[in-house]
């Protein structure tokens, strides 16, 4: 699984090398990845995500996060899939802030092979800073559901158009 995620991030980086678009406009599509920390699972994870900007103010975001829980958590694996809407409320040339809301599906597998998946709601916000060929982002969101947790994330996104 780690090799697949690393390969995906490398391919995304190579795809973005030739692109000179720095500022987000409607119709922009970005792919990227980064690191996560979940307070309930108490571990670090990797994230792969994509964002599509529909209008000047609205964007859609989908991501997959895979956490690496320690032995003391009793979990063998923990991963989540998220689909969020972003509302961009502070737009500058290189920087913008956004609120987000959406759906979360979290799946935990414990050491005795029981698997449990739960649906949750995401509420949070983030910021993105645009550089020459990539954007740096950070997000803070709270998942409301049976797997309640605060998730802190940061990473990079590459424009593809």
From TrEMBL:
Domain Outer membrane protein beta-barrel stretches: 9-158
Signal peptide positions on this chain: 1-24
Top-level taxonomic group: Bacteria
Keyword annotations of the record: Signal
Keyword check for Kinase: no
Gene3D superfamilies: 2.40.160.20
A Pfam family that the UniProt record links to this protein: OMP_b-brl
Keyword Signal: yes
Protein name: Porin family protein
Originating organism: Halalkalibaculum roseum
